[in-house]
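USER:
Make up one protein:

ASSISTANT:
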Amino acid sequence: MQLLSINLGQERTVNTGKQVEKTGIFKLPAEGPVEVTTLGLVGDCIKDQKNHGGPDQAVYVYGEADYAWWSAELGQTLAPGTFGDNLTISNLESALMQIGDRLQVGAVLLEVTAPRIPCATLAARMEDPQFVKKFRAAERPGAYCRVIQTGHIAAGDPVTHTAYPDETITVGEMFRAWYAPPTDETSLRHFLASPMAIRSRKRFGKLLADVASS
């Protein structure tokens, strides 16, 4: 595996159909090394900090295989960063990764924490009001990661994947469960055993509490 592109966003304005908002989803490939901190890539713009960014969702990764699928589906070549991904990686299919898997990207170590959930901003970026539904149906969400080891990275760096050794779920399973969550305590506890992002843990933790009290 190899780091194909590092993508940084600059603040732009989009009309989501309901409101005009500022966003950092428009990302372009960076030239030269980029520093990665526990809060993400230096120079990257994150405006919606309620749903994106933070220590548990510091870096968004998308796979070459996912891009190839979308390019065929949409009938056009999509450039790295189109989906707001910070890192575009070869030989990676995001839904197959597990929560807790680690990616050694050059000097930087990442840990997978959550799938990306599509929103109106993504639809506006793709200039397609139906794109949220299309992104959900495709089940190629990409993966958010926390940064375990900081450092500098550059396009062309080798990427090594290490599977999480304990009980966990795949990115694809978590993505589907966001829309149709488990309704039994055993399944929810299985989900929560994984080292998922805090935003996701709050959501599934509340579901577990509701099931346990019913």
Notes: Residues 25 and 84 are 5 Å apart (CA to CA).
